[in-house]
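Fresh eyes needed here. Have a critical look at this protein's tokenised backbone.
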Amino acid sequence: MSTPLADRIRPATLDEMIGQQHLIGEGKALRTIIESGEVPNLIFYGPSGVGKTTLARIIASRTNKTLYRLNATTASISDIKSIVADVGTLAAPNGILLYLDEIQYFNKKQQQSLLEYLESGDITMIASTTENPYFYVYNAVISRCTVFEFKSVPVSEIERAVNRAFSILSQENGVSYDVEPEVIRHIAASSGGDVRKAINAVELCTLATLVPADASSVAITESTVEQVTQKSSMRYDRAGDDHYDIVSAYQKSMRGSDPDAALHYLARLLEAGDLPSAIRRLLVCACEDVGLAYPQIIPIVKNACDIAQEVGLPEARIPLADAVILVATSPKSNSGEQAIDAAMADVRSGNYGAVPRQLQNKHFDGKDNNNPGQFYDYPHDHPGHWVAQQYLPDVIRDRTYYEPGENKMEQAAKNYWDRIKNQK
């Protein structure tokens, strides 16, 4: 099996790299470190296909250390011990440079097995991860490393890589590929900031294009590109950072009353097939962020979510879009959330007392009670269906948890009860 094009044309120098100019541009800290020749322990953090492995290889080629590569998805402690055994031997006279891919898959014991050698300098480690290292890499390892964050590559830079890929394939295959700028742009835009994905799409396009026996050139059509790049722009992992970033942006957009942004993130969730997350955050937002400003919205949104689950995708997008727009454009109030959080804070801190006698579920008194009787005053026996009466325990009898929001709905209720209670 031939080596994938993305590996065959992998950049060999910093100047050939696509993207990450905030790290390796002229005068940037990481470039200066690399060019100094004194490379510390590093952790590269960012999405796949943006140059983490490529840069690690470039760094390795600039050092006199013996390069070892491990992938944490398959490596074991015995693999680490085998590498460590070469420290100080003729196999690694100038030390070891260990490139550890997907370090987040190493457990604590495996990561700890590296600590002694990282600290002594016998091993220089460059680790890469697609997950936030501060969540997945243990503090003892992070404290001995410098973390650099890699970002998705801009479309304009990916276009350069796509052009280069077509040029190299033309040379390898002995045929000139006629590629319109729109096709280049489509491939770049569909890659989701992933250079490797874009280059793989180029290779697929050439494999999917029939070249007549006597032809010296062939056109790469947009139809072919559309077929090989279906959904390729999606960066999504239900257990990864992208998932939490999208669902967070989804709810914050509804809370911020921006229906266009909310629909955008809903579309990303649905395109990834993540109907449960789209529904859960929508229900939460209806209760938490609209709440008492428009309480009727809660059953409306619940019904829309039930319909979405009943019909499934792709039709589920319609009731969910209706509900998302309704939540985003409705008045907002989080007074209910604030009220229950305040009440729960009292309960958790032990700031509560016995239920007042008049509210207890008792209809008799023991002989030791000098003041028998429940003394509950039934509100419906009074004008306005209200009577002044203590409901909170004695120790917090004057506590106020709920403060009405400034919206029309809550202010109307406040004004109603102010009128009723002031008449007494």
The CA atoms of residues 97 and 124 lie 5 Å apart. The longest strand covers residues 123-129. The chain has a mean pLDDT of 87.
